[in-house]
Amino acid sequence: MRYVKLKHQEIPAIALGTWSWGNGVNGGDAVFGNNLTDEDLKPVFEAAMKAGFNLWDTAAVYGMGASETILGSFIKGRNDFLLSTKFTPRGTQTEDAMEEMLAGSFDRLGVDYTDIYWIHNPNDVERWTLKLIPLMKSGKVKHAGVSNHNLEEIKLAASILEKEGLQLSAVQNHYSLLYRSSEEAGIIDWCNQNKVLFFSYMVLEQGALTGRYSSKNPFKAGTRRGEAFTSEVLEKLDDLIDVMDTIGKKHNADPAQIAMAWAIAKHTVPIIGVTKPKHIESAISAVDIILNEQEIKELEEAAKATGVEVKGVWEKSMTE
Asked: Domains in the chain, start-ordered, CATH in brackets?
């Protein structure tokens, strides 16, 4: 297992995401087209913990609490895990909204603190960053993070915390071979320079970069990822998948593992959605893959040549 530093704490080089755990609004059925039960997911959790992947990323809005509830049932009675969950700002919320949402997360997870607490979007950065301060000082939040923020918003959040003697520990943005907006905007460089850990989500583009899907084997219709990655879009990825496969053969790896290894090589911590034990096996191998500069260049050139850039409906460009 390779580890990286989250301030003074070591964490695995890959974090595990639970966006697809549980059904409901923003849940696994609506986004990914699955209907996974606790019984389906428990072997995944156990395989991950055995392998040393103990950082679990979730959010109150994933399945509107369903993801946290499932994860909470798995970690009950254990103390060898690390938790990452999120507060989601919305249009109209009371001044106590963050504290109340965190309390709900704690209730579902069965804990009294979280290792990382993220502000999920940049809606009113100053207002919600200020709300993190008492939660950090009380010990309910060990590390503060911001997600889907641009560089200006990240710097603002960091400065607000610094005035109280606190630090911004992490940034979590969409980042993959097909979507490098955070790199182009200088966010990853800023994070490296300021010892803020960058977490990359959708590294596998919801499965589109695994090589398991194609125009002949598309995503399930009626799902969010099926709408984003249509058969026409998947066909445009064929050449990139071929390059990933060719490089993968040199490392005894598949395209998914190459996508993860690329994200690690770019000084980020990929968050990988896991729903099957084989996903853990894939991550175990991916952390040991070291790509050279030529391989990274070939991957990035092939990705650019696809002309595909899929941005979530909740996202804004980081370079505008």
From this structure: 3-306 (3.20.20.100)
